[in-house]
Amino acid sequence: MESYDESQMVYCPYNKEHKMLRKKLQQHILKCRVIYKDTVELMVCPFNKGHLIPEPEFFQHTKSCEDRKIIVHYQTSAPAVLNEDTRHAKIECEENWDDDDVPDYDPQVYCSTANIVREPNGLFPSQRKAFIKEENRRQFGEDYKEEKPPKAKKRADTRPAPYEAWTPYSRRQ
After folding, report:
1. CA distances from 123 to 116, 120, 133 (A)
2. Residue 62 in contact with residue 46, Cβ under 8 Å?
3. For the whole prediction, is pTM greater than 0.70?
4. Residue 25 sits in which domain range?
5. InterPro entries in the record, alphabetically (predicted)?
6. For the CA atoms of 18, 19, 22, 25, what is the dihedral angle to 10 degrees?
7. Residue 60 lies in a domain
8. Is the pLDDT of residue 149 over 80?
């Protein structure tokens, strides 16, 4: 087993005998929280959700938490100062995208007028036939007539005549 630097190792807040790598702590806490949910009551630090502290020590921890200084620094720091280097002139544009007289883009309307092959996806068979018929009219013109395959011959017409054997040397006469 590899030996790790002691600074990478941390103890579980639920059971101090559990020692693991810092990067595995959150995964381990999820398991220990279920095991010790009735016996150990820990509070979550408001500055770092990874800090779980017993209730008696919570007040002291919030005063001395190392992550508190990040929040305090953010709250007390002054806003950024804008000077001539960071300012820029207002950008004027002749386009107005908020005009109401421009119609919305409708892809169905565009596809029905453009030379695009459309598929009858998600339609019932009768709707699919009507869609294909309408698409053929749209693409090939109003005078387009659907070419129907020739009808099959009746079954009786396609059967050969029964075999009648002719026997020239028949004894019957």
Report:
1. 19, 6, 14
2. yes
3. no
4. 1-40
5. TRM13/UPF0224_CHHC_Znf_dom, UPF0224_FAM112_RNA_Proc, Znf_C2H2_sf
6. -10
7. yes
8. no
